[in-house]
TrEMBL record:
This is Phosphoribosylamine--glycine ligase. Keywords: ATP-binding, Ligase, Manganese, Metal-binding, Nucleotide-binding, Purine biosynthesis. It is an enzyme of class 6 (ligase). It comes from Wujia chipingensis. Pfam families: GARS_A, GARS_C, GARS_N. Belongs to the GARS family. The lineage of its organism: Bacteria, Bacillati, Bacillota, Clostridia, Lachnospirales.
Length: 423
């Protein structure tokens, strides 16, 4: 099979690595890819948003399967473009990807179909939002309705912070048109868990659980980021939680989308909060999480191509997902200053250390090949992942492996998975 991966981040490197393990894949392409993906696939300089060029390339190379990685092209209908051209594609159509593309849509869907989530109100007028806050209980959560690179969620502890948040999202347009409409939501407490699920429009199968660390600094301080590290499995995602979510969240969401005429095929990412009153949905994404993919895919035993094809063909019920007993931890190496201002173009040393080291992986996120070698080319540069018999061992291994990599401006959190040490 000839496979084309659309995307160029850490998630897409993990997908490319997993595809390269498949006995069925003979040729692997990525658009645009990155320096790490280029070691596994032929990278082509086509934007993830250029549906016309992507489809033309797929036709030219006689691609058998396209895999759309990021949220933006899915919400913009890039999967639709492949389908309309008769090319098999893994990823939801735009009318289903709206579950991530609009927070207001997903909240309304949960309310309509009785899927447990936080109470909320939606606003497209800043004055109305500010008036509502005067009567609201603090802390409170503000969410940009549209896509904001995983950063459009503000947790506000005081009324002043909340008012400033409305100004940031709706008036200053920090995230552009994503903040034209906002969702104001009750603040939930508990442990966060991410569960990625394969979907075929009717059936849904959850993968191993994971937990992301969104804040830039240790102790969950600082600004929201795309994710600074993650671990799998979550010790807080018990059999009872799994049973509840399968019945009240996962299948209910699939059925709700089908009832709305928005059959969901691809990856449904369920961000959950394990509250004192039971699991609640924090948010949905319509694709693999980044960096969740970097811990879940190395633990997955199945051939990913088999599973993706079963999703496309509506035969997911015939697949049994299997995951390694070993745990995995990923620590993101970022450019100092991320998620705001940072320099790039620094040479990265130590990447070869990972070759032939069983249970250690380095996934490229923001890298570029140059005459000087591989250099930093983004806020999140690399995801260093390691396995271990336990989460504590995997965490120690991952942090040991971060020392093998050096580049100027290197920054990371030192407490990824710290909660698991305290178990």
């Amino acid at each position: 099979m000839k496979v084309l991966i659309v995307g160029g981040g850490g998630r897409e490197h993990a997908i490319a690595w997993k595809c390269s393990q498949s006995k069925r894949v003979t040729e692997l392409y990525a658009a645009p890819g990155n320096a790490g993906i280029a070691q596994l696939a032929t990278c082509v300089d086509i934007s993830v948003m250029d549906a016309e060029k992507l489809v033309a390339f797929a036709k030219e190379k006689e691609i058998d399967l396209a895999i759309v990685g990021p949220d933006d092209p899915l919400v913009a209908g890039v999967a639709d473009a492949f389908m309309d051209a008769g090319i098999r594609v893994f990823g939801p159509r735009a009318n289903a990807a709206i579950i991530e593309g609009s927070k207001a849509f997903s909240k309304d869907l949960m309310k309509k179909y009785g899927i447990p989530s936080a109470a909320y109100e939606t606003f497209d007028n800043a004055d109305a939002a500010l008036a509502y806050l005067e009567t609201a209980k603090m802390p409170i959560v503000l969410k940009a309705d549209g896509l904001a690179l995983g950063k459009g969620v503000l947790i506000c502890n005081t009324l002043e912070e909340a008012k400033e948040g409305v100004k940031t999202l709706m008036l200053d347009k920090q995230f552009g048109s994503a903040g034209d409409k906002i969702v104001i939501e009750e603040f939930m407490t508990g442990r966060e868990v991410s569960v990625l699920c394969f979907c075929d429009g009717t059936h849904i199968k959850p993968m191993a659980s994971a937990q992301d660390h969104k804040r830039a600094k240790d102790g969950d301080q600082g600004l929201n980021t795309g994710g600074m590290g993650t671990f799998s499995p979550s010790p807080f995602y018990t059999d009872d939680v799994d049973k509840f979510c399968k019945e009240h969240v996962y299948q209910k969401t699939m059925d709700a989308m089908k009832a709305e005429g928005r059959d969901f095929t691809g990856i449904l990412f369920c961000g959950l909060m394990l509250t004192p009153d039971g699991p609640r949905v924090l948010e949905y994404n319509a694709r693999f999480g980044d960096p969740e993919a970097q811990v879940v895919l190395p633990r997955m035993k199945n051939d990913i191509i088999d599973v993706m094809e079963a999703c496309i063909d509506g035969k997911l019920d015939e697949v049994e997902l299997e995951f390694d007993e070993q745990a995995a931890v990923c620590v993101v190496l970022a450019s100092d200053g991320y998620p705001e201002h940072y320099d790039k173009g620094f040479v990265i040393d130590g990447l070869d250390t990972f070759k032939d080291k069983e249970g250690y992986y380095v996934f490229h996120a923001g890298t570029k090949q140059t005459d000087k070698g591989i250099v930093t080319n983004g806020g999140r540069v690399l995801g260093v992942t390691a396995k271990g018999k336990t989460l504590v061992e995997a965490r120690a291994n991952a942090y040991k492996a971060t020392e093998w990599i050096q580049f100027e401006n290197k920054y990371m959190r030192h407490d990824i998975g710290k909660a698991i040490d305290e178990q």
